[in-house]
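User: structure tokens for this one?
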Amino acid sequence: MRKTLKEIAVLIDGEVIGDAGTVITGVSGIKEASQGDITFVANPKYIHLLQETGASAIITSRDIASSTKPIIRTDNPSLAFTKVVSLIFPEEIKHPGGIHPTVILGKDVSLGEDVALGPYVVVADNASIGERTIIYSGSYVGHDTKIGCDCLIYANVSIREKVSVGNRVIINSGTVIGSDGFGYVHAEGIQQRIPQIGRVVIEDDVDIGANVTIDRARFDKTVIGQGTKIDNLVQIAHNVIIGKNSIIVAQAGISGSSIIGNNVTLAGQAGISGHLTIGDNAVVAAQAGVIKSVPADTIVSGYPAKPHGVAKRVNACVQNLPRLYDTVAALKKKIEELEAKFKK
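Assistant:
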């Protein structure tokens, strides 16, 4: 598809600086882009790439006054570029259609209009799947589970019994929702399993990455709030409550009964102990180990996690340990020399 910069600017409410007639035929990242592509810069530390990219045009913030190449200035370059990709260069993915003859349906299953089920999908008794939902091959839907409309569930996803999935939810391959929570009691010399009889609720517009595990609650429910986005390889334990529009990045782990607020970011490999609260708008940095609740509007990092400013000072001190060791060793030697001198 071919569009001029002027046409693209209208779609994203942007301002063209430079040749508005520049023709765009593709989209790409700023480092990979070539002639005919449009790209974007959102992070100020990559501004220098404006002069280096092979792209024909760049979407930028309104802070950028000029460039050697044509630009479109916008309020949110990342969002604007996303609109360009989806509106002008949409994904060409061919999803399954219809009900494949190898699908196994249990008793009293309810399927909405235009539901698509790929090869070897299993839907257990009393499950319901909403209109236009697509389920790829090899996936399992447990009994009494309800899946909403316009969902996209990729291959080999397991959604166990009595799970509720909202509308427009995306679940990537290998994810397991509703697995038993990790609950045992040590008695008579062995670990005895505690029954996990609760459920999982996934609200509308949630995205779940590949190989994510979301455990069912022990009694009540584990909840993933509306609009929350979960990266690959995340573990969410029983009775966890995650609020709306939060971001959970790869390999993060949330222990049982913790509450994660709205608009929270848990960066990669962050670990949250059980029965804690992470307040609204908080940010937990990568590899942070949280062992105490985090107030709203706070950034924490390190292990154990502490306010980010404190953690940076601690880290700076740690980096100076080799020099400090040398200084102490030199002082020790000097003291020993002085003591030997005064003993004479």
